[in-house]
């Protein structure tokens, strides 16, 4: 059944590629297209695509060769059809990892020798466990001008061995990401299927100018923490035209964890998420909960979600510090969800007991318009922080079909804002009209504001 679903979704992503005409609005131009003429093949370095041979030596030698060649314009590492089993490996600058049709790069499941790496400084420890973390399956650290693309070949993390360790509480360190870029610029990821990540799937952290477009991300609905795309303390990020069906948030913007994120002080900013479709038992589009470095200037539009936990989820907590501001979300359709919209200040755990309980996050200038949904158990829950109420929460043209349930349609506390054409009627805190002029002028002019502030559109 799962493989059948994969084939169906491959058809969907191909149709998305076909129908995305040149005149469709896109932010992908922030990373110029690189046409590389120099090419080497993994089979030239001893790679065997039989699904049994471990090809770690072949991958590492081929990438080392690219690094040494330093060809003008860079070099393509071509992966032909076949299943190439390998341990983790690093990418280098000025390269393209190209997966032909039928090509699979598959992670080994021998976790005993999986390399360890330091925790991220903005997290202070592994996200799941104290201490370090397992190295990501494919890592680019301090690289520039890197492309991962192809003909919808697959990168398969074989994450079930890691999920079982998590379920049985036998993890020694935080699980590896499937793809991670750190301290890197001009990264392009497109036309690849990412499957069964051990942990978060695509994780750009401390990066700038990143494009993720025309990708399919798959993991079972019960797979723990298999987030789709997680921009983290990164700027100028474009996520478009993709399908995600996984076990955690489809897209989650982050920027560090409590006192470590505050000290590191790098925000996530100028992020566009557009034409993303999918399903998840958690959130479709999430901001948080780790937002201690701040998140600002985010545009989300043309999103289609089904079988969701929460459609749109903005989440933080006391002790986080930081800010979430200038967020525009529009043209979203949600079907079958526990909650349509959730904006909450009591979500997420802490790395340790050293966080400052007086470090209250600031959440303001959140604009949601033209959000439609059916079979939504609760339209919205907006729960601010008593010492730091959420301000300028602006709702316009929101319509949810909410069947009779135990939930009230809207629950609100410690929030200020306004609404226009919202059904079912929102809570009293958002019925006020004094902020209408500010809210709806901002909604109308948001793209103009983005252009002036550098947000990719």
Automatic annotation (TrEMBL):
Q: Enumerate the SUPFAM superfamilies for this protein.
A: Pectin lyase-like (SSF51126)
Q: Which Pfam families match?
A: Glyco_hydro_28
Name the domain of life: Eukaryota
Keywords carried by this UniProt record: Glycosidase, Hydrolase, Signal
Q: Name one GO biological process term.
A: carbohydrate metabolic process
Leader sequence segment: 1-21
Q: What InterPro entries does the record tag this protein with?
A: GH28_Enzymes, Glyco_hydro_28, PbH1, Pectin_lyas_fold, Pectin_lyase_fold/virulence
Q: A GO molecular function for this record?
A: polygalacturonase activity
Family indicated by similarity: Belongs to the glycosyl hydrolase 28 family.
Put simply, this protein is called Polygalacturonase
Q: Which organism is it from?
A: Saponaria officinalis (Common soapwort)
Q: What is the lineage of its organism?
A: Eukaryota, Viridiplantae, Streptophyta, Embryophyta, Tracheophyta
